[in-house]
Backbone:
């Protein structure tokens, strides 16, 4: 009996060669619509599916292949006599190969089409055909990836169609249909935390290794959504590692929290800030963040990128070495020269001047990432053994602005307080950031004891003040503002902060000892503000 193949594809890549080989090898090709027309243009004889089903395509092409003459030919077990007898009685014949790819829902759902337009790109017949053929992979070749066509042709030539190979093709089918259905479910769902978590992601690259050399790793992006990282373009440098990707993610999220000029996304919590502090002056327009081991080691604002970067560098001149720098404005040649004075792994910016790129490209290993979009993901996913933790992103910043002490913050300190709260959002808890003139002078991150985090931040701030005075970029005065990601359980942080010259503290509040801590601030002449919003980052 002549073997039969059913071919119906949206993406015509390589299909002419596959069809020609099958016809030359004595196969019959069943097809529909545009695919049939395309193969006829290639001078290949085609049998219309409607001739097999004896039923015309209808409902604007929605109904073509959902028929027992087709699915019976796919699902019948060749080694089961009763199955073959049933086919014979019904007048149906087996189908031995199915080649299908879907309407481009992945691509179309990203394009802002109307709901009705999007729904028309939900493929029904294609997934059904593939699922039937993949279930019966012992007898049917299920093809969906154009990259597999040449391999299948070669294996058909040699007869090397092992069960292992057939099973691998079937697995790719169910992998694709699962991602396809998940993307559709995500589009239709209007629930933050649905009963099932439909994730549709596709591997874009294998990474050199994971967090450590003995660990393997790969990078996946959503099929149905474009995010900040999937929008980035690497302009120069060697490939990215697992740690690089995580650092890039943190650096770009942090720099965008202070205002992004690339696509106009407002700073983190801007509406709430405006609600409680309507007269707050606009901060400097340029933001710069340095990251090492997924936590910032410098954050600053400036009127120019050179100014913002110099302030970022002064926070921790040692840790920034070999780190990542992100900024929210295009990089000009002057800034490129300044950034090139230090060994950096990665530089991220919305754009790069041609002359700036020439400067950077003299360092062959330096990765240059062009970022065109602010972070868009509404949720964060953390793998745990046996499942996922899911939460919405921390974007609130402040819930209130309550001055709880006798001392009032100086007007010049309020901007630094808001800056500090944005900064601690991206610093690992326990997090303390000491701020001066829209720059982090000291960052205490990831400590199990809040006092230790404060001591680290204050000591680093003292060194940064001294270094700035020596270079003439500072006046030698101690920082005035300290920000904490969570409340203080004890007065120790307040006491060491006051001893270091801190005049204003901003923190969420909510401790059982808040009243006592307020009294300590009043005795020390320190102003303190409660924001009502905690910013733990584990």
Residues:
């Amino acid at each position: 009996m002549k073997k039969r193949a059913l071919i119906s594809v949206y993406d015509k890549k390589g299909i002419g060669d596959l069809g020609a080989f099958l016809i030359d090898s004595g196969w019959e090709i069943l097809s529909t619509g545009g695919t049939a027309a395309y193969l006829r243009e290639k001078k290949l004889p085609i049998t219309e599916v409607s001739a097999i089903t004896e039923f015309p395509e209808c409902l604007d092409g929605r109904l073509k292949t959902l028929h027992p003459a087709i699915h019976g030919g796919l699902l019948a077990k060749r080694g089961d006599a009763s199955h073959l007898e049933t086919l014979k009685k019904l007048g149906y014949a087996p189908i031995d190969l199915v080649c299908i790819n879907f309407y481009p829902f992945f691509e179309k759902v990203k394009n802002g089409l109307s709901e009705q337009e999007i729904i028309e790109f939900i493929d029904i017949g294609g997934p059904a055909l593939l699922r039937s053929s993949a279930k019966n992979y012992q007898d049917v070749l299920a093809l969906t990836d154009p990259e597999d066509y040449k391999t299948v042709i070669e294996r058909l030539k040699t007869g090397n169609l092992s069960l292992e190979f057939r099973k691998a093709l079937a697995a790719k089918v169910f992998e694709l249909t699962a991602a396809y259905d998940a993307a559709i479910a995500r589009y239709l769902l209007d629930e933050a935390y649905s009963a099932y978590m439909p994730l549709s992601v596709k591997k874009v690259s294998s990474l050199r290794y994971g967090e450590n050399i003995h660990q393997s790793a790969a990078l996946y992006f959503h099929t149905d959504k474009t995010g900040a990282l999937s929008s980035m373009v690497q302009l120069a440098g060697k490939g990215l590692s697992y740690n690089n990707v995580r650092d890039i993610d943190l650096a770009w999220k942090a720099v965008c929290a202070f205002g992004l000029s690339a696509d106009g996304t407002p700073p983190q919590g801007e509406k709430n800030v405006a609600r409680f502090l309507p007269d707050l002056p606009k901060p400097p327009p340029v933001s710069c963040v340095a990251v090492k081991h997924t936590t910032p080691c410098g954050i600053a604002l400036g009127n120019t990128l050179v100014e913002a970067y110099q302030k970022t560098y002064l926070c921790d001149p040692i840790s920034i070495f070999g780190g990542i720098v992100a900024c929210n404005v295009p990089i000009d040649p002057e800034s490129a020269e300044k950034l090139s004075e230090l060994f950096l792994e990665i530089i991220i910016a919305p754009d790069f001047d041609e002359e700036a790129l020439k400067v950077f490209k003299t360092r062959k290993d330096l990765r240059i990432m062009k970022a065109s979009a602010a972070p868009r993901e509404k949720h964060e996913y953390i793998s745990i053994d046996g499942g996922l933790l899911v939460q919405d992103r921390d974007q609130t910043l402040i819930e209130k602005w309550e001055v709880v002490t006798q001392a009032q913050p100086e007007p010049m300190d309020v901007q630094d307080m808001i800056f500090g709260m944005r900064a601690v959002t991206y610093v690992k808890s326990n997090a303390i950031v000491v701020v001066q003139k829209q720059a982090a002078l000291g960052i205490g991150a990831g400590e199990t004891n809040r006092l230790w985090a404060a001591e680290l931040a204050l000591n680093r701030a003292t060194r940064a003040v001294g270094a700035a005075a020596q270079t003439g970029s500072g006046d030698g005065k101690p920082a005035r503002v300290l920000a904490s990601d969570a409340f203080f359980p004890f007065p120790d942080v307040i006491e060491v902060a006051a001893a270091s010259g801190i005049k204003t503290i901003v923190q969420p509040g909510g401790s059982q000892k808040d009243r006592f801590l307020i009294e300590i601030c009043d005795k020390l002449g320190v102003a303190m503000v409660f924001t009502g919003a905690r910013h733990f980052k584990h």
Summary: The longest helix spans residues 163-188. The chain has a mean pLDDT of 90. The longest strand covers residues 295-302. The domain at 398-530 is CATH 3.40.140.20 (Cytidine Deaminase; domain 2).
